[in-house]
Design a protein that fits this description.
Blueprint lengths: L2 E6 L1 H5 L3 H11 L2 E8 L3 H7 L9 H8 L4 E7 L3 H9 L12 H5 L8 E3 L3 H11 L12 H4 L2
Antiparallel strand pairs: 1-3, 1-4, 2-3
The structure holds ribavirin triphosphate.
Keywords: ATP-binding, Kinase, Nucleotide-binding, Transferase
GO molecular function, one term: nucleoside diphosphate kinase activity
Protein name: Nucleoside diphosphate kinase
């Protein structure tokens, strides 16, 4: 079953959106496989966002991610990478549809509350980076009510 890496960024934590975000993924039917509350340091944030290192906003992005604790999670389910991105909404919250997390709770691209892996291979890399000891294996008892 597909897995994705989701991070609630420092603004999402500070604004008390952790429960709301977890609720949205749970209600959709996805399963939570790993969760930790963590302060990341600069080298770690730079590694996570290595693909963006040439972007002009890279330094500000890293400063933002290290500015407070984040919630790192692994969610599992059919199509969770792409559908997780739909639940999150467009990168720029002003372009995110109402009903999405960023569409409902954010305004500025530099304070957009949440990160979600953009492809299955980046999800695999990000899960390995954030959860090097692996994740818990379990199956929800609701499985047969969610999947045909
Ligand atoms: P994320 O990785 O956080 O899920 O975001 P994304 O794929 O939707 O967007 P990406 O292009 O990978 O950018 C990563 C994060 O960088 C910040 N950003 N700031 N100031 C800017 O122009 C700008 N552009 C991007 C955002 O926090 C974005 O989520």
């Amino acid at each position: 079953m597909e897995q994705t890496f989701i991070m609630i960024k420092p603004d999402g934590v500070q604004r008390g959106l952790v429960g709301e975000i977890i609720c949205r993924f749970e209600k959709k039917g996805f399963s939570l496989k790993a969760l930790k509350f963590v302060n990341v340091d600069r080298p770690f944030a730079e590694k996570h966002y290595a693909d963006l290192s040439a972007k002009p906003f890279f330094n500000g992005l890293v400063e933002y991610i290290v500015s407070g604790p984040v919630v790192a999670m692994v969610w599992e389910g059919k199509g969770v990478v792409a559908t997780g991105r739909k639940l999150i909404g467009a990168t720029n919250p002003l372009a995110s549809e109402p009903g999405t997390i960023r569409g409902d709770f954010a305004i500025d691209i530099g304070r957009n509350v949440i990160h979600g892996s953009d492809a299955v291979d980046s999800a695999t890399k990000e899960i390995a980076l954030w959860f090097p000891d692996g994740v818990v294996h379990w199956q929800s008892s609701l499985h047969s009510w969610i999947y045909e």
